[in-house]
Amino acid sequence: MLLLALVAVAPARDFYTYTAPDGTVVLTDSPDHDGFEKWWTEVVPGSYLPNGVAMPRLDRITNLDAFDAWFLESAVAEGVPAELLKAVAVAESRMNPGAVSRAGAKGLMQIMPSTGKTLGVKDLFDPQESIAGGAAYLAKQVSRFGSYEHALAAYNAGPRNVEKFGGIPPFDETRTYVARVMGLYAHFRDNRKVTR
User: Hey, where are the domains in the chain?
Assistant: First the structure.
């Protein structure tokens, strides 16, 4: 999974995005050339998600609502809120179906190829398949760990780390990722419901 790390209470990291000539989008905290642009640090000044995380510039995500029907479909199929799934997609890929992380995670929900294979996802770049696979994986972690926060930690850092530490691992990346997704989830749930 792509590891993300920005929250008001933790050391802030800048994340960068770059679109390669072949259309592949790379997200990283360690840009290796000048073609990268800052990503999550583009926030609405003085505006915060319900849990205190800086509000990202959601207005700059042009396809923010483009996949809502598939979020709803997967929410029904897996019993996970559509708004939580959408929050994961925003945090993982900024809603970009062509995103690729340096670790090799791909697509809207940033699924590793090996995980995608076990989930039956044939095309990690297909938004509908990515959402369905991400929803199935997240639902499995919710069932395993009993909370959205722990499930998100498993989505980000792996279930073994959640087991090892008896909850959210003490990794800045994971703690801030969980806070970011939970903040986005609350925002979508309370202010911008996922609809068809």
Answer: 16-191
Mean pLDDT of 31-52: 77
The answer, yes or no, to whether residue 11 has pLDDT greater than 70, is no
Query: Topology of 16-191 in CATH?
Result: Lysozyme (1.10.530)
Mean pLDDT of the chain: 87
CA 68 and chain centroid, separation: 15
Sign of CA dihedral 156, 114, 112, 63: negative
92 a catalytic residue: yes
pTM as predicted: 0.82
The rounded distance, in Å, linking the Cα atoms of 63 and 137 is 23
Q: Which of 42, 78, 83, 92 is catalytic?
A: 92
Contact, 70 vs 129, CB < 8 A?
Answer: no
DSSP assigned state of 47: E
